[in-house]
Amino acid sequence: MDLRNYLKAGYPGLYIETHEPLRAIASIEAEGWRVYAWDCQRGIIERESGKIIEDVRDPLGAIKWLVVRNDTVLFVQNFHHFVESVEIIQEIQNSIPIWKGSGCCLVMVGPRVRIPVEIDSFFTILDFRLPSRDELRIIQKELGGSVGVEVVEGAVEAALGLTEFESETAFALSLVLKKEFCPQVITGQKMQMIRRTGLMEFWPPVPVEEVAGLDLLKQYLMNRRKAFEPGGEHLPRPKALLLVGIPGTGKSLSCKAAASIFGWPLIRLDISSLKGSLVGESERRIRQATATIDAFGRAVVWLDEVEKAFAGVKSSGSTDGGTSSGMFGHFLTWMQETTSPVLVMATANNVQELPPEFLRAGRFDAMFFVDVPTTQERLEVIRIMNNRYGSQIPEESSQELNGWTGAEIEQLAKDSLFDGLEEALKTIVPLSKTMKEEINALQQWATTRARRANTPEGTDGTKTVRRVK
Fold first, then answer.
1. Least confident of 176-190, 325-339, 378-392
2. What are the percentages of helix, strand and coil residues in the chain, rounded to 5?
3. Is the pLDDT of residue 28 over 70?
4. Among candidates 277, 278, 282, which has minimal Cα distance to 313?
5. How confident is the model at residue 469 (pLDDT cuts 50, 70, 90)?
6. How far is the C-alpha of 58 from the C-alpha of 79, rounded, in Å?
7. Between the N and C ends of the chain, which has fewer C-beta atoms within 10 Å?
8. How many domains are there within the chain?
9. CATH code for the domain of 442
10. What is the DSSP letter of 208?
């Protein structure tokens, strides 16, 4: 990062947003200005030599020290812990015109914070980028050179989004565990980014063999995987898919299987849990979550029952001061504009509850309708459940279980172990009976509005609607 243009223009205050303050202070260009750093333990330090030149540990004293200088840049660490003080605010207000006239600049370096409103107009916020691919290669080369280990491009890609310290320690751990730079080890360490936020959680991917049927959806995902593989850089990358359909038909399971198909971690983002009680907290948390996902990259982001997460968006202005609407707007913008290699997989049971702007053309790469299983798919479900639970549901029951969802067949397998198959069949009432009208309406809606996830009944390949009788 080069500050010279800002300094030439007479900017008296800058805020460098980063979690790497030492790396930022050491590498930012400010040629032509005298450059110093300050912290509350060592005082004023000359950047180039690292020598302590003034024992000024008081933050107020640091500001006053800069007032009597000319053409000087002072980087200050952890200053956001002091800047709320009225004395600091007043001193900065008094000093700004002096710094502007003397060519001095106060540069705060630290994580994203709220600058007090009294002085926020004096500070321009700049982002300090994380290590690039070239810088990560250099780190690998330095670590691997002494032990004869070559640079691994996959590990470089896996480390994107980590700080210099995080990437160096992850590479070192990989050398200790695997005697090489292993992308899986790097990704495992990278997961700490998600865990530290407390805003999201990792879920284990599900092998695609555990998902019965849904061949059209599986084929779609396998075809689009090429866009993220070497040699597929020219292909357009899918960003988001929406799975709508009947509860219990495997929408959430498909999201878990998508992570397995892509070979990526699965991040579950619960929008509702991000809502906070303080003004602005919800918007801040959704921005932090999407920024972390961007930095993490190469992940399937799973939003379950998204219609509930964004319920009340239309009435947000009168019910919650616009919080839901603000979160919804940011998420839609991020989903549309992000350039990170992530795939958003959203599920919905009742698509009619979703805001229209969520469904407009271009928002999702595709919308799939997940119907009740076909005869062949029910047979696959029976085989999977018998293998999983040791149950003995006859395969010919796939005809008898017409209209049953995969979740209902799983419950049948579990109940049959205790009550016997015949009794379990009597006690389970499938949704195809209790919600017959709603399911038929949803199936009819999907005929012209969504792609099918299931392979159609029969062998003619036509898109038929399996109405519940």
1. 325-339
2. 50, 15, 35
3. yes
4. 282
5. very low
6. 11
7. C
8. 4
9. 1.10.8
10. G
